Amino acid sequence: MRNEHLFASLDGARNIILESVPVMRTEKVALADALGRVLREKVVSDIDYPRADVSSMDGYCLDSRLAAGASSECPVTLPVAGKTTPGAEPPRAEPGTCVLITTGAPLAGGTDSVVMYEDVEEKRGAGEVESITITGPVPPGSHVRRRGEVIGEGDTVLEAGQVVNPQVLGVLASFAPGPYEVSRRPRAGVLATGDELVPSGADLPRYAIRDSNSPTLAGMLAEAGCDVIRAGHTPDTEYGIAQDLERYSDCDVVMISGGVSGGRFDFVPACLERIGAEVVMRGVKVKPGKPVLFAIKGGTCYFGVPGNPVSAVVSFLMLFRPAVLAMMGRSDCLPVWVTAKAAGAFDKKSPYVSFAPGVLGSDLEVRPARFLGSGDVMSLAGANALVCVPAEVDAVAAGDTVRVYPFAPFKQGG
Ligand code: AMP
Ligand code: MG
What we know:
27 strands; elongated; binds adenosine monophosphate; binds magnesium ion
Protein backbone atom coordinates (compact mmCIF):
# COMPACT_ATOMS: atom_id res chain seq x y z
CA MET A 1 0.00 0.00 0.00
CA ARG A 2 1.14 3.54 -0.71
CA ASN A 3 1.34 4.87 2.84
CA GLU A 4 1.20 8.52 1.87
CA HIS A 5 -2.50 8.02 1.15
CA LEU A 6 -3.36 7.01 4.67
CA PHE A 7 -5.68 9.68 6.05
CA ALA A 8 -5.96 11.89 3.01
CA SER A 9 -8.10 15.02 2.97
CA LEU A 10 -11.54 14.53 1.45
CA ASP A 11 -10.65 16.34 -1.78
CA GLY A 12 -7.25 14.66 -1.88
CA ALA A 13 -8.82 11.23 -1.42
CA ARG A 14 -11.36 11.92 -4.15
CA ASN A 15 -8.62 13.05 -6.51
CA ILE A 16 -6.60 9.89 -5.87
CA ILE A 17 -9.66 7.78 -6.61
CA LEU A 18 -10.71 9.74 -9.70
CA GLU A 19 -7.19 9.50 -11.12
CA SER A 20 -7.05 5.76 -10.53
CA VAL A 21 -10.41 4.38 -11.66
CA PRO A 22 -10.58 2.84 -15.14
CA VAL A 23 -13.15 4.15 -17.62
CA MET A 24 -15.69 1.58 -18.79
CA ARG A 25 -15.56 0.21 -22.31
CA THR A 26 -18.22 1.42 -24.71
CA GLU A 27 -21.14 -0.17 -26.52
CA LYS A 28 -23.69 1.03 -29.05
CA VAL A 29 -27.28 1.56 -27.96
CA ALA A 30 -30.44 2.66 -29.74
CA LEU A 31 -32.47 5.69 -28.70
CA ALA A 32 -34.94 3.53 -26.77
CA ASP A 33 -32.11 2.21 -24.57
CA ALA A 34 -30.17 5.45 -24.15
CA LEU A 35 -31.86 6.88 -21.04
CA GLY A 36 -29.39 7.18 -18.16
CA ARG A 37 -26.42 6.21 -20.29
CA VAL A 38 -23.29 8.37 -20.73
CA LEU A 39 -22.36 9.48 -24.24
CA ARG A 40 -18.79 8.69 -25.17
CA GLU A 41 -18.75 10.42 -28.53
CA LYS A 42 -19.77 13.93 -29.44
CA VAL A 43 -23.08 14.00 -31.25
CA VAL A 44 -23.43 16.00 -34.45
CA SER A 45 -26.66 17.07 -36.12
CA ASP A 46 -27.51 15.41 -39.43
CA ILE A 47 -29.98 18.17 -40.35
CA ASP A 48 -30.55 21.90 -40.38
CA TYR A 49 -33.24 22.91 -37.89
CA PRO A 50 -35.63 24.39 -38.76
CA ARG A 51 -35.34 22.37 -41.94
CA ALA A 52 -36.56 25.31 -44.09
CA ASP A 53 -37.52 28.93 -43.53
CA VAL A 54 -40.73 28.49 -41.52
CA SER A 55 -43.35 30.73 -40.00
CA SER A 56 -43.43 31.43 -36.27
CA MET A 57 -47.05 32.69 -36.48
CA ASP A 58 -50.40 31.93 -38.06
CA GLY A 59 -51.01 34.40 -40.90
CA TYR A 60 -50.05 34.97 -44.52
CA CYS A 61 -46.69 34.73 -46.22
CA LEU A 62 -45.81 37.14 -48.95
CA ASP A 63 -43.02 38.79 -50.86
CA SER A 64 -42.31 41.72 -48.51
CA ARG A 65 -41.81 44.05 -51.50
CA LEU A 66 -45.57 43.85 -52.17
CA ALA A 67 -46.30 45.59 -48.85
CA ALA A 68 -43.34 47.97 -48.91
CA GLY A 69 -45.42 51.13 -49.04
CA ALA A 70 -48.45 49.88 -47.09
CA SER A 71 -50.05 52.25 -44.54
CA SER A 72 -53.56 53.04 -43.32
CA GLU A 73 -53.73 55.81 -45.94
CA CYS A 74 -52.30 53.57 -48.60
CA PRO A 75 -53.51 50.02 -47.85
CA VAL A 76 -52.36 47.06 -49.94
CA THR A 77 -54.86 44.32 -50.78
CA LEU A 78 -53.56 40.92 -51.86
CA PRO A 79 -55.52 37.86 -53.01
CA VAL A 80 -54.95 34.71 -50.95
CA ALA A 81 -53.85 32.01 -53.35
CA GLY A 82 -53.32 28.69 -51.59
CA LYS A 83 -52.02 27.61 -48.22
CA THR A 84 -48.94 26.04 -46.69
CA THR A 85 -49.04 23.66 -43.74
CA PRO A 86 -46.35 22.17 -41.45
CA GLY A 87 -44.69 19.04 -42.75
CA ALA A 88 -45.90 19.46 -46.33
CA GLU A 89 -44.15 20.68 -49.46
CA PRO A 90 -45.06 24.39 -49.76
CA PRO A 91 -46.71 25.78 -52.91
CA ARG A 92 -45.21 28.64 -54.95
CA ALA A 93 -46.93 31.97 -54.47
CA GLU A 94 -48.25 33.38 -57.72
CA PRO A 95 -46.81 36.88 -58.31
CA GLY A 96 -48.86 39.52 -56.52
CA THR A 97 -50.56 37.07 -54.13
CA CYS A 98 -50.09 35.85 -50.59
CA VAL A 99 -50.45 32.34 -49.14
CA LEU A 100 -52.21 31.27 -45.94
CA ILE A 101 -49.62 29.89 -43.49
CA THR A 102 -49.79 28.18 -40.11
CA THR A 103 -47.14 28.17 -37.39
CA GLY A 104 -44.20 25.93 -38.28
CA ALA A 105 -45.13 25.65 -41.96
CA PRO A 106 -42.46 26.28 -44.60
CA LEU A 107 -42.75 29.56 -46.47
CA ALA A 108 -44.32 29.38 -49.92
CA GLY A 109 -41.91 29.76 -52.82
CA GLY A 110 -41.34 33.40 -53.74
CA THR A 111 -42.22 34.72 -50.25
CA ASP A 112 -39.88 36.01 -47.56
CA SER A 113 -42.04 37.25 -44.70
CA VAL A 114 -45.18 36.60 -42.72
CA VAL A 115 -47.90 38.99 -41.62
CA MET A 116 -49.99 37.85 -38.64
CA TYR A 117 -53.67 37.36 -39.33
CA GLU A 118 -54.46 39.65 -36.39
CA ASP A 119 -52.63 42.48 -38.23
CA VAL A 120 -54.64 42.34 -41.46
CA GLU A 121 -58.22 42.80 -42.53
CA GLU A 122 -59.51 39.52 -43.93
CA LYS A 123 -62.19 39.46 -46.60
CA ARG A 124 -64.08 36.19 -46.77
CA GLY A 125 -65.80 34.64 -49.72
CA ALA A 126 -67.50 31.26 -49.37
CA GLY A 127 -66.08 30.69 -45.87
CA GLU A 128 -62.51 31.01 -47.07
CA VAL A 129 -60.46 34.19 -46.82
CA GLU A 130 -60.21 35.47 -50.37
CA SER A 131 -58.05 38.52 -49.81
CA ILE A 132 -56.28 40.46 -47.08
CA THR A 133 -55.65 44.15 -46.68
CA ILE A 134 -52.37 45.22 -45.14
CA THR A 135 -52.11 48.67 -43.56
CA GLY A 136 -48.48 48.74 -42.47
CA PRO A 137 -45.07 47.67 -43.78
CA VAL A 138 -44.04 44.02 -43.49
CA PRO A 139 -40.24 44.02 -43.17
CA PRO A 140 -38.43 41.15 -44.93
CA GLY A 141 -38.08 38.15 -42.61
CA SER A 142 -40.98 39.14 -40.33
CA HIS A 143 -42.10 36.17 -38.19
CA VAL A 144 -39.77 33.85 -40.08
CA ARG A 145 -37.51 31.32 -38.39
CA ARG A 146 -34.62 30.78 -40.76
CA ARG A 147 -33.47 27.39 -41.96
CA GLY A 148 -30.72 26.14 -39.61
CA GLU A 149 -31.34 28.97 -37.12
CA VAL A 150 -31.52 26.59 -34.10
CA ILE A 151 -28.98 23.98 -35.26
CA GLY A 152 -27.05 23.65 -38.49
CA GLU A 153 -26.19 20.36 -40.18
CA GLY A 154 -22.80 19.27 -38.78
CA ASP A 155 -23.13 21.34 -35.59
CA THR A 156 -22.25 19.62 -32.31
CA VAL A 157 -25.41 19.15 -30.28
CA LEU A 158 -23.99 17.11 -27.36
CA GLU A 159 -20.49 16.56 -26.02
CA ALA A 160 -18.97 13.27 -24.87
CA GLY A 161 -19.42 12.80 -21.13
CA GLN A 162 -23.03 13.96 -21.13
CA VAL A 163 -25.55 11.78 -19.34
CA VAL A 164 -28.72 11.13 -21.33
CA ASN A 165 -31.72 12.48 -19.44
CA PRO A 166 -35.24 12.79 -20.89
CA GLN A 167 -34.47 16.26 -22.30
CA VAL A 168 -31.29 14.97 -23.94
CA LEU A 169 -33.35 12.14 -25.44
CA GLY A 170 -35.33 14.84 -27.24
CA VAL A 171 -32.15 16.33 -28.68
CA LEU A 172 -30.92 12.91 -29.80
CA ALA A 173 -34.28 12.07 -31.35
CA SER A 174 -34.32 15.39 -33.23
CA PHE A 175 -30.81 15.61 -34.56
CA ALA A 176 -29.08 12.23 -34.46
CA PRO A 177 -31.14 9.06 -34.74
CA GLY A 178 -28.33 6.88 -33.42
CA PRO A 179 -27.18 4.32 -32.45
CA TYR A 180 -24.96 6.06 -29.91
CA GLU A 181 -21.66 5.08 -28.39
CA VAL A 182 -22.16 4.99 -24.61
CA SER A 183 -20.34 3.55 -21.62
CA ARG A 184 -21.21 0.04 -20.60
CA ARG A 185 -23.04 0.05 -17.31
CA PRO A 186 -20.65 -0.89 -14.51
CA ARG A 187 -21.50 -4.29 -13.02
CA ALA A 188 -21.65 -3.70 -9.31
CA GLY A 189 -21.61 -5.94 -6.29
CA VAL A 190 -22.36 -5.08 -2.66
CA LEU A 191 -20.83 -7.02 0.19
CA ALA A 192 -21.81 -6.12 3.76
CA THR A 193 -19.46 -7.58 6.36
CA GLY A 194 -20.34 -8.22 9.97
CA ASP A 195 -20.98 -11.18 12.27
CA GLU A 196 -23.94 -9.30 13.70
CA LEU A 197 -25.81 -8.97 10.40
CA VAL A 198 -28.79 -10.87 9.04
CA PRO A 199 -30.59 -10.10 5.79
CA SER A 200 -33.87 -8.27 6.25
CA GLY A 201 -36.74 -10.75 6.31
CA ALA A 202 -34.69 -13.60 7.76
CA ASP A 203 -34.98 -14.80 11.36
CA LEU A 204 -33.62 -12.11 13.63
CA PRO A 205 -31.78 -13.62 16.60
CA ARG A 206 -31.68 -11.54 19.76
CA TYR A 207 -28.85 -8.96 19.42
CA ALA A 208 -28.51 -9.41 15.67
CA ILE A 209 -28.83 -6.41 13.33
CA ARG A 210 -30.66 -6.30 10.03
CA ASP A 211 -28.35 -5.48 7.12
CA SER A 212 -29.50 -2.07 5.92
CA ASN A 213 -26.34 -1.09 4.07
CA SER A 214 -26.69 -3.64 1.27
CA PRO A 215 -30.04 -2.33 0.03
CA THR A 216 -29.00 1.31 0.49
CA LEU A 217 -25.67 0.92 -1.28
CA ALA A 218 -27.25 -1.18 -4.02
CA GLY A 219 -29.90 1.51 -4.47
CA MET A 220 -27.34 4.30 -4.66
CA LEU A 221 -25.24 2.33 -7.15
CA ALA A 222 -28.29 1.67 -9.30
CA GLU A 223 -29.26 5.36 -9.15
CA ALA A 224 -25.74 6.26 -10.26
CA GLY A 225 -26.13 4.03 -13.33
CA CYS A 226 -24.74 0.62 -12.31
CA ASP A 227 -26.22 -2.83 -12.81
CA VAL A 228 -26.15 -4.37 -9.36
CA ILE A 229 -25.52 -8.02 -10.08
CA ARG A 230 -24.68 -9.24 -6.59
CA ALA A 231 -25.55 -8.20 -3.07
CA GLY A 232 -25.18 -10.02 0.18
CA HIS A 233 -23.48 -10.14 3.52
CA THR A 234 -20.68 -12.18 4.99
CA PRO A 235 -19.47 -12.80 8.54
CA ASP A 236 -16.20 -11.40 9.83
CA THR A 237 -13.76 -14.13 8.88
CA GLU A 238 -10.68 -13.49 6.83
CA TYR A 239 -11.15 -16.63 4.78
CA GLY A 240 -14.88 -16.03 4.14
CA ILE A 241 -14.48 -12.41 3.12
CA ALA A 242 -11.58 -13.24 0.80
CA GLN A 243 -13.65 -16.01 -0.77
CA ASP A 244 -16.59 -13.68 -1.33
CA LEU A 245 -14.32 -11.03 -2.80
CA GLU A 246 -13.01 -13.62 -5.26
CA ARG A 247 -16.61 -14.49 -6.13
CA TYR A 248 -17.26 -10.80 -6.88
CA SER A 249 -14.29 -10.53 -9.25
CA ASP A 250 -16.59 -10.36 -12.30
CA CYS A 251 -17.81 -6.96 -11.04
CA ASP A 252 -16.42 -3.62 -12.14
CA VAL A 253 -17.31 -2.10 -8.77
CA VAL A 254 -17.45 -3.87 -5.42
CA MET A 255 -18.88 -1.89 -2.51
CA ILE A 256 -17.82 -3.33 0.81
CA SER A 257 -19.44 -2.12 4.00
CA GLY A 258 -17.98 -2.60 7.45
CA GLY A 259 -14.74 -4.17 8.55
CA VAL A 260 -12.54 -1.56 6.91
CA SER A 261 -11.10 0.25 9.94
CA GLY A 262 -8.22 -1.00 12.04
CA GLY A 263 -10.16 -3.05 14.59
CA ARG A 264 -9.45 -6.68 15.49
CA PHE A 265 -12.25 -7.96 13.28
CA ASP A 266 -11.68 -5.57 10.41
CA PHE A 267 -10.42 -8.09 7.91
CA VAL A 268 -11.24 -6.28 4.67
CA PRO A 269 -7.83 -4.63 4.05
CA ALA A 270 -5.99 -7.90 4.66
CA CYS A 271 -8.49 -9.80 2.50
CA LEU A 272 -8.03 -7.39 -0.38
CA GLU A 273 -4.29 -7.84 -0.21
CA ARG A 274 -4.79 -11.57 0.02
CA ILE A 275 -6.71 -11.64 -3.27
CA GLY A 276 -4.01 -9.53 -4.92
CA ALA A 277 -5.76 -6.16 -4.96
CA GLU A 278 -3.67 -3.03 -4.48
CA VAL A 279 -4.97 -0.89 -1.63
CA VAL A 280 -4.45 2.57 -3.12
CA MET A 281 -6.01 4.68 -0.40
CA ARG A 282 -7.12 4.10 3.15
CA GLY A 283 -8.67 6.56 5.56
CA VAL A 284 -9.87 10.06 4.97
CA LYS A 285 -10.07 13.06 7.29
CA VAL A 286 -13.84 13.38 7.40
CA LYS A 287 -16.57 12.82 9.99
CA PRO A 288 -18.48 10.62 9.65
CA GLY A 289 -16.75 8.24 7.28
CA LYS A 290 -13.07 8.20 8.25
CA PRO A 291 -12.30 4.50 7.74
CA VAL A 292 -12.76 4.19 3.99
CA LEU A 293 -10.70 2.20 1.59
CA PHE A 294 -10.07 2.10 -2.12
CA ALA A 295 -8.35 -0.81 -3.85
CA ILE A 296 -7.95 -2.01 -7.42
CA LYS A 297 -7.30 -5.36 -9.02
CA GLY A 298 -7.36 -5.51 -12.80
CA GLY A 299 -10.55 -3.86 -13.94
CA THR A 300 -12.28 -4.20 -10.57
CA CYS A 301 -12.48 -1.31 -8.10
CA TYR A 302 -13.11 -2.05 -4.43
CA PHE A 303 -14.75 0.72 -2.45
CA GLY A 304 -14.82 0.16 1.31
CA VAL A 305 -17.12 2.20 3.53
CA PRO A 306 -17.72 2.09 7.29
CA GLY A 307 -20.52 -0.09 8.60
CA ASN A 308 -22.44 2.65 10.33
CA PRO A 309 -25.30 3.49 7.97
CA VAL A 310 -24.84 7.28 7.91
CA SER A 311 -21.08 6.95 7.47
CA ALA A 312 -21.61 4.50 4.62
CA VAL A 313 -23.89 6.93 2.78
CA VAL A 314 -21.67 9.98 3.37
CA SER A 315 -18.60 8.09 2.14
CA PHE A 316 -20.44 6.86 -0.91
CA LEU A 317 -21.80 10.28 -1.85
CA MET A 318 -18.56 12.17 -1.23
CA LEU A 319 -16.07 9.67 -2.69
CA PHE A 320 -17.47 6.66 -4.45
CA ARG A 321 -20.43 8.08 -6.34
CA PRO A 322 -18.02 10.48 -8.09
CA ALA A 323 -15.79 7.46 -8.76
CA VAL A 324 -18.64 5.49 -10.35
CA LEU A 325 -19.60 8.50 -12.50
CA ALA A 326 -15.97 8.88 -13.59
CA MET A 327 -15.89 5.18 -14.54
CA MET A 328 -18.91 5.84 -16.71
CA GLY A 329 -17.01 8.64 -18.44
CA ARG A 330 -19.20 11.42 -17.10
CA SER A 331 -17.76 14.90 -17.40
CA ASP A 332 -19.71 16.09 -14.33
CA CYS A 333 -18.61 13.66 -11.65
CA LEU A 334 -17.72 16.01 -8.79
CA PRO A 335 -20.28 16.76 -6.05
CA VAL A 336 -22.20 19.96 -6.77
CA TRP A 337 -22.49 22.30 -3.79
CA VAL A 338 -25.19 24.81 -3.03
CA THR A 339 -24.64 27.85 -0.83
CA ALA A 340 -27.43 28.03 1.73
CA LYS A 341 -28.34 29.81 4.95
CA ALA A 342 -28.36 27.72 8.12
CA ALA A 343 -31.79 27.83 9.76
CA GLY A 344 -30.41 26.19 12.90
CA ALA A 345 -27.15 25.19 14.54
CA PHE A 346 -24.94 22.39 13.21
CA ASP A 347 -22.32 21.40 15.74
CA LYS A 348 -19.20 19.41 15.13
CA LYS A 349 -17.29 17.06 17.36
CA SER A 350 -14.27 16.43 15.19
CA PRO A 351 -11.29 18.44 13.93
CA TYR A 352 -12.04 17.08 10.45
CA VAL A 353 -14.44 18.39 7.85
CA SER A 354 -17.84 17.16 9.03
CA PHE A 355 -21.22 16.45 7.52
CA ALA A 356 -24.63 16.60 9.11
CA PRO A 357 -27.99 15.74 7.57
CA GLY A 358 -30.12 18.74 6.70
CA VAL A 359 -33.40 19.61 5.07
CA LEU A 360 -32.80 22.13 2.29
CA GLY A 361 -35.85 24.22 1.42
CA SER A 362 -36.67 25.96 -1.82
CA ASP A 363 -35.76 29.24 -0.07
CA LEU A 364 -32.19 27.86 0.17
CA GLU A 365 -32.38 27.69 3.93
CA VAL A 366 -31.19 24.47 5.48
CA ARG A 367 -32.42 23.23 8.81
CA PRO A 368 -30.89 20.42 10.83
CA ALA A 369 -32.52 17.04 10.30
CA ARG A 370 -32.79 14.55 13.12
CA PHE A 371 -29.33 13.14 13.73
CA LEU A 372 -28.63 10.84 16.63
CA GLY A 373 -25.22 9.83 15.33
CA SER A 374 -23.73 7.83 12.51
CA GLY A 375 -25.71 4.73 13.48
CA ASP A 376 -29.02 6.58 13.00
CA VAL A 377 -30.40 4.99 9.83
CA MET A 378 -33.52 7.18 10.14
CA SER A 379 -31.63 10.45 9.82
CA LEU A 380 -30.78 10.48 6.12
CA ALA A 381 -34.18 9.19 5.07
CA GLY A 382 -35.66 12.37 6.59
CA ALA A 383 -33.03 14.66 5.05
CA ASN A 384 -32.31 15.80 1.51
CA ALA A 385 -28.88 17.34 1.92
CA LEU A 386 -25.54 17.02 3.67
CA VAL A 387 -24.40 20.19 5.40
CA CYS A 388 -20.64 20.65 5.30
CA VAL A 389 -18.92 22.07 8.38
CA PRO A 390 -15.34 22.81 7.26
CA ALA A 391 -12.38 21.56 9.28
CA GLU A 392 -11.42 25.06 10.47
CA VAL A 393 -14.95 25.91 11.68
CA ASP A 394 -15.99 24.83 15.20
CA ALA A 395 -19.73 25.01 14.70
CA VAL A 396 -22.34 26.55 12.43
CA ALA A 397 -24.88 28.91 14.03
CA ALA A 398 -28.31 29.85 12.69
CA GLY A 399 -27.89 32.55 10.04
CA ASP A 400 -24.43 31.39 8.94
CA THR A 401 -23.75 30.63 5.31
CA VAL A 402 -22.99 26.97 4.66
CA ARG A 403 -22.11 24.72 1.75
CA VAL A 404 -24.70 22.04 1.20
CA TYR A 405 -24.70 18.93 -0.95
CA PRO A 406 -28.25 18.12 -2.04
CA PHE A 407 -28.72 14.37 -2.56
CA ALA A 408 -32.51 14.18 -2.85
CA PRO A 409 -35.21 16.52 -4.21
CA PHE A 410 -36.44 19.53 -2.29
CA LYS A 411 -39.24 18.79 0.13
CA GLN A 412 -42.61 20.32 -0.41
CA GLY A 413 -43.51 23.12 1.97
CA GLY A 414 -40.08 24.73 2.33
P1 AMP B 1 -18.00 -1.63 11.35
O1 AMP B 1 -17.62 -0.53 10.43
O2 AMP B 1 -17.92 -2.97 10.72
O3 AMP B 1 -17.17 -1.56 12.62
O4 AMP B 1 -19.51 -1.43 11.77
C1 AMP B 1 -19.89 -0.40 12.67
C2 AMP B 1 -21.34 -0.59 13.10
O5 AMP B 1 -22.18 -0.32 12.00
C3 AMP B 1 -21.72 -1.98 13.53
O6 AMP B 1 -21.52 -2.14 14.91
C4 AMP B 1 -23.17 -2.06 13.22
O7 AMP B 1 -23.92 -1.55 14.29
C5 AMP B 1 -23.34 -1.15 12.04
N1 AMP B 1 -23.39 -1.88 10.79
C6 AMP B 1 -22.36 -2.51 10.18
N2 AMP B 1 -22.76 -3.05 9.03
C7 AMP B 1 -24.06 -2.77 8.89
C8 AMP B 1 -25.04 -3.05 7.89
N3 AMP B 1 -24.71 -3.74 6.79
N4 AMP B 1 -26.29 -2.60 8.08
C9 AMP B 1 -26.61 -1.91 9.19
N5 AMP B 1 -25.74 -1.60 10.15
C10 AMP B 1 -24.47 -2.02 10.02
MG1 MG C 1 -18.12 -4.88 11.44
